[in-house]
Amino acid sequence: MKIKSATFVKSATSPEHYPRDGRLEVAFLGRSNVGKSSLINSLLGVKGLARTSNTPGRTQLINFFLINESFYFVDLPGYGYARVPSEIKKDWGPMVEKYLATRPNLVLSIHITDSRHEPTQLDLLMREWLESRGKPFVIVATKADKLSSNKLRANLNRASAVYGRKELIPYSSVTRKGADRIWKEIVKQISGQSAPISG
Predict the structure, then answer these.
(1) I need a labelling partner for 9 at 20 to 30 A (CA). Which of 151, 154, 156, 178 fits?
(2) Could you write out the three-class secondary structure of 31-76?
(3) CA gyration radius, the chain
(4) Structural domains for the chain
(5) Across-strand partners of 109?
């Protein structure tokens, strides 16, 4: 897909603050410090659109980015970072779950994991939650450039087994290797919806 425009629209904490133009949405979710913002920026070819930080847990709101004036990328708060204040952490679960469970515009979730590490219990819970509710999703293993080919292959095979043989898409924000496969999934889900969704 050719990216003609990508703009930050708004941040939200609850449904009344979500965009109401009916455009379809693709959500990005995963652990804090898993490379979520870097993935979004590199997929779009835009530096600094989604905020990246060396401090995990900086994204504390649901952020909406309008792509090509036709659909949204939705950057969800990361989960599982211990040093995030407990009050913030307590709010994240309900905020993210409400979006994922009730948003009719959501057509695909990009579940992000780190290719260097095995999936955590929280990763598995997120996958089970998405599957149990019939939510379309793909799993993307970021930071693939930091591993040798053999190590990457071994890690992906192990993670796939842990996820219940769910295929993972390896991705590098440095080389953009894997971008075509991710965009193929995004376009497939967006194209499957023939008309905007009201709400």
Answers:
(1) 178
(2) ECCCCHHHHHHHHHCCCCCCCCCCCCCCCCCEEEEEECCCEEEEEC
(3) 16
(4) 7-191 (3.40.50.300)
(5) 27, 137
